[in-house]
Design brief:
The complex is a heterodimer.
Chain A lengths: L3 E9 L5 E10 L4 E5 L6 H8 L7 E6 L2 E2 L5 H6 L1 E4 L11 H5 L1 H5 L4 H14 L4 H4 L9 H12 L6 E5 L7 H18 L2 E6 L2 H7 L2 E6 L2 E6 L1 H5 L4 H8 L1
Parallel strand pairs in A: 3-8, 3-9, 6-7, 7-8
Antiparallel strand pairs in A: 1-2, 1-4, 4-5, 9-10
Chain B lengths: L1 H9 L1 H35 L1 H16 L2 H8 L10 H25 L3 H9 L4 H31 L12 H10 L2 H29 L5 H27 L5 E6 L2 H18 L3 E7 L2 H10 L4 E5 H8 L8 H14 L2 E3 L9 E6 H7 L4 H4 L8 E3 L1 H5 L4 H8 L8 E2 L2 H9 L5 E5 L4 H4 L2 E4 L11 E6 H6 L1 H9 L6 H12 L5 H10 L1
Helix pairs in contact in B: 1-9, 2-3, 2-5, 2-7, 2-10, 3-5, 5-7, 6-7, 7-9, 8-9, 11-22, 11-24, 13-14, 23-24
The chains are: A alpha/beta, B alpha/beta.
Chain lengths: ~240, ~500
């Protein structure tokens, strides 16, 4: 059973613009799928359909064997870690409090939450002592993004959704964080869906790459197969 | 300034009471405005289509002048009428706008990515509100609360117009006495209170700002508890003022306050019933409405005023006919006009005592032949009113040296005394008349309408407390023009305490 599946999903925006049409995709447990497409290709919509921030007009999004329509949205979202491009750290909470948000929502005891926060700070390579009590605006862009990843992993969700996770970083930090993310993923074996406009990012991280064009999945294959694709809609993304 | 300190020192008990009332009015109304305004703002922020009408409505409410607002609320049951409750309702309405608006701004101003992160993490809408939206909107909301409270301190001074007390009472009293020291005794502490509220709430805002550590949060909680305690203590202090069986009202000028106090003390002495005083109410209309709704049981009205301002009847110049007609009109509306107190607060044509004696002047007719050699000084209102100067000149064939000077009514007494003018139109009961040795010329042609002072009471109250009726009837004819002038003089010029003035008069 795939961890996450799109079955013939269509989605039209309120204005009547078709964002996805007959989109079908299966993501196996433990793999990293990167969806690549130009801006406006419907990439973010794909992720919002998974955590039911949006609902499909036709077809089904299936998470762990169950259609998102049958999930209670709050329960569903707490099974899905979500990392945004602009991170969305809560500015009124310290690093530790930000990471501990979902554990607290889940009713963990303060001790258990604190222990988990320490564990995650170790995982993302930030020193407990000096970072736990910092405020988001006291962090560099790379540090903020790491905290965003730690927050998404807090209650150990099986699936991680990442929307342009390293897009806003400078090139050196980006490369560094990709490496670290691969290291983390080797330990955790999450099912990950990343959307990005950057083919290099997809190559650096993904086990399989999907190409979105005008709301359709025009290619879905391993990076090796993708690099030799002759499809102009795929080639175009290499040039950008 | 030393005069102000001396006044506050000598009135310190009363001042403390008024300050407590003021704090209570502002505190209670701000708390309720927060309790209504913040949820309303949250509601509006979530439904953008409703937020414009809600803010628009609050805006309209804000633009209604406070006195008009009190007027609108007077006849409304439960929340209207006179007294602290109605004042708090008005202050709540004024406080809503800044709080609603800043709540909406605070919440809608939150970065969309932050809200989306919260939703995507699986927050329910109440968790999102509690953990993300409210904390982030808090600086904005706190600023709105601060504005509401500071504006409230100012608006609350007007609450004295409907007998809600507070520092405004000194301002009104000072205005009616034309005594700037008394005005300042209300205005300066009110301004200082506004500054203190502003500074205090700003401090709280700083402590509450994004960077809250548990220590400062505890300090803020302690400060909040202290503030609420202050409000409760003020409430207790203010409520501690007797809630009597009989409520006596008065309008907001010296003579009315004296008469209100006089009626109140007479009832206390003769019947032993507890009496509550609601003196210094805004004006004729407010007193009349308050009497109709039962917010007061009795006040002193003038026949001419009742006829024109309350019942919109043409003026009757025969005193007994005017009294009878007013009495009948009141009777039809469940109120009883009691026997007149004995003096008439009509316009008084005044000349210097020296002139009156040397020329043998007793009546206005006597003055007509010498008037062309005289300069006259009149208040603006008297010059303009058809029943003022134009009619008077006609009725007596009066002509003066040049056009009459326009001058402030209160200044005209001294202008006459010092010889700047030779004839003025003043109030018959003005305390300065005997003090400056002025003489009132008799209106022998009965040009001026009668303004006989008489208590008017709710018929129900008189039925229930026959001794009150007896007491009020007993006051009939007991106060001469000379008595009233003396008491007004004692209050306005000698700054004696009204309670003492009245007590001295009643013991005579």
């Amino acid at each position: 059973m795939p961890a996450l599946e799109f079955r013939d999903v269509s989605f039209t925006r309120a204005g009547g613009m078709t964002v996805l049409s007959h989109f079908t995709l299966a993501v196996d447990a433990g793999e990293i799928v990167a969806l690549v497409g130009r801006s406006g290709a419907g990439k973010s919509t794909v992720l919002k359909l998974v955590n039911r921030l949006l609902e499909p007009d036709a077809g089904d999004v299936v998470v762990e064997g169950r259609s998102t329509r049958d999930w209670q949205p709050i329960r569903l979202r707490r099974r899905l870690g979500y990392v945004l491009q602009d991170v969305g750290l809560f500015p009124h909470m310290t690093v530790a409090t930000n990471i501990g948000v979902v554990p607290r929502l889940e009713g963990w005891t303060p001790d258990r939450t604190a222990a988990r926060v320490d564990e995650l700070l170790d995982l993302i390579g930030l020193d407990r002592g000096s970072f736990a009590t910092r405020w988001p605006d006291e962090l560099s862009g790379g540090q903020r993004q790491r905290v965003g990843v730690a927050r998404a992993l807090a209650v150990d969700p099986p699936i991680l959704l990442m929307d342009e996770p390293f897009g806003a970083l400078d090139p050196i930090t980006r490369v560094e964080l990709r490496g670290e993310f691969r290291r983390i993923q080797e330990r955790l074996k999450k099912t990950v869906v990343i959307v990005t406009h950057d083919m290099r990012e997809a190559f650096a991280l993904a086990t399989r790459i999907g190409v979105l064009d005008a709301g359709e999945l025009v290619a879905f294959d391993t990076p090796q197969a993708m690099s030799v694709s002759a499809d102009p809609r795929v080639r175009r993304l290499f040039d950008s | 300034m030393t005069g102000l300190f001396r006044f506050l020192l000598s009135h310190r008990v009363e001042f403390a009471g008024l300050l407590a009332q003021h704090v209570l009015l502002v505190g209670a109304s701000t708390l309720v405005a927060v309790a209504i305004g913040v949820p309303l703002g949250i509601f509006a922020a979530r439904r953008p289509r409703l937020s414009a009408p809600i803010v628009g409505l609050a805006n309209i409410v804000q633009t209604i002048p406070s006195l008009a607002m009190f007027g609108f609320l007077l006849p409304v049951p439960l929340i209207g009428g006179v007294g602290a409750r109605a004042a708090i309702v008005v202050l709540i309405l004024y406080g809503l706008l800044p709080i609603v608006r800043t709540t909406i701004t605070g919440i809608t101003g939150i970065d969309a990515a932050i809200r989306e992160a919260g939703v995507a993490m699986g927050m329910t809408s109440s968790e999102l509100l509690r953990l993300v939206e409210l904390p982030l909107a808090m600086p904005s909301i706190a600023a709105g609360i601060r504005v509401a409270a500071v504006v409230g301190v100012g608006s609350a001074t007007i609450a004295a117009a409907i007998g809600a007390g507070g520092l405004g009472e000194y301002i009104y009293r000072g205005l009616s006495m034309v005594d700037s020291t008394v005005i300042l005794a209300g205005a300066v502490p009110a301004a200082l209170l506004a500054l203190a509220v502003d500074t205090g709430l700003l401090w709280v805002e700083r402590q509450m700002s994004t960077r809250r550590r548990s220590a400062s949060r505890r300090t803020v909680l302690a400060a909040g508890a202290a503030a609420i305690a202050v409000i409760l203590v003020s409430g207790a202090t203010a409520a501690g003022r007797s809630r009597g069986a009989i409520i006596v009202g008065s309008k907001n000028f010296t003579e009315q306050v004296i008469l209100g106090e006089l009626v109140a003390q007479a009832i206390e002495r003769q019947t032993g019933l507890p009496v509550q005083r609601r003196l210094n109410l805004g004006g004729t209309l407010i007193c009349d409405r308050a009497l109709t709704t039962g917010d007061i049981d009795v006040y002193v009205e003038y026949t001419g005023t009742a006829l024109t301002a309350v019942f919109h009847r043409p003026i009757t110049t025969t005193p007994s006919a005017a009294y009878d007609e007013v009495r009948e009109q009141y009777a039809r509306t469940g109120r009883t006009l009691l026997p007149a107190l004995g003096f008439d607060n009509t316009f008084a044509i005044l000349v210097r005592g020296r002139d009156a004696r040397s020329l043998g002047l007793k009546t206005i007719d006597d003055a007509a032949p010498v008037a062309p050699r005289w300069r006259a000084g009149f208040g603006y209102e008297f010059l303009e009113r058809p029943d003022g100067y134009p009619g008077l000149a006609n009725a007596y064939g009066l002509r003066f040296l040049g056009e009459p000077h326009v001058m402030d009514l209160t200044l005209s007494y001294r202008a006459l005394s010092s010889g700047q003018v030779d004839l003025i139109a003043g109030d018959a009961t003005a305390g300065l008349i005997p003090a400056l040795d002025l003489v009132q010329l008799d209106d022998n042609r009965h040009y001026f309408p009668p303004y006989a002072a008489a208590p008017v009471a709710r018929a129900q109250t008189l039925l229930r407390y026959p001794k009150v009726r007896e007491t009020l009837e007993h006051l009939g004819g007991k106060i001469t023009v000379a008595d009233m002038r003396r008491m007004n003089y004692a209050a306005d010029v000698e700054h004696k305490d009204v309670t003492r003035i009245v007590a001295d008069f009643l013991t005579q």
